[in-house]
Amino acid sequence: MFANVLIVCHANVCRSPAAEMLFKSKQRAAAPIAFHSAGLRAMNGHGMDPVMQRLLAERGVASGIHYSRRLDRQLVRAADLVLVTERAQVSAVEALDPASRGKVYPLGKWEDDSDVADPHGGAETAYRESLVLIEHLVMGWLKKIC
């Protein structure tokens, strides 16, 4: 069983925090897992993208207070499982910590390794499409890890 799951995207203001909040809101109480997020190129301390935050709220998912943080080796090593929003990010995480091989997977692993497009700064329709996909992928992972 996994106790600590880390979700990674580029800036940690949109996709990975959305996945983190969805994991937290949808997990079974009987199998509590700590979900966290970080970004490969994040600037520490930025808030969550307001469009994504609003769309989560429309789904009844509280996003709470989120501050972006840059991925580092310590975060990777503390995680039992690392999920990335794009396939190419697997190698970036493994380059940061070679010992992470075997615990880094695309969020879309169970869906033909689907990448989650980054909607940040785009049209609201792009945000909605990404959020629908993220929610679908989160539910798939929860069936596997809980």
Automatic annotation (TrEMBL):
Matching InterPro entries: LMW_PTPase, Ptyr_pPase, Ptyr_pPase_sf, Tyr_phospatase_low_mol_wt
Top EC category: hydrolase
Catalytic residue positions: 9 (nucleophile), 15, 118 (proton donor)
One of the record's GO molecular function terms: protein tyrosine phosphatase activity
Domain of life where this protein originates: Bacteria
Pfam family, one: LMWPc
Documented EC number(s): 3.1.3.48
Assigned keywords, A-Z: Hydrolase, Protein phosphatase
Catalysis: reaction(s): O-phospho-L-tyrosyl-[protein] + H2O = L-tyrosyl-[protein] + phosphate
Similarity remark: Belongs to the low molecular weight phosphotyrosine protein phosphatase family.
Alphabetical list of PANTHER family matching this protein: LOW MOLECULAR WEIGHT PROTEIN TYROSINE PHOSPHATASE (PTHR11717), LOW MOLECULAR WEIGHT PROTEIN-TYROSINE-PHOSPHATASE ETP-RELATED (PTHR11717:SF31)
Name of this protein: protein-tyrosine-phosphatase
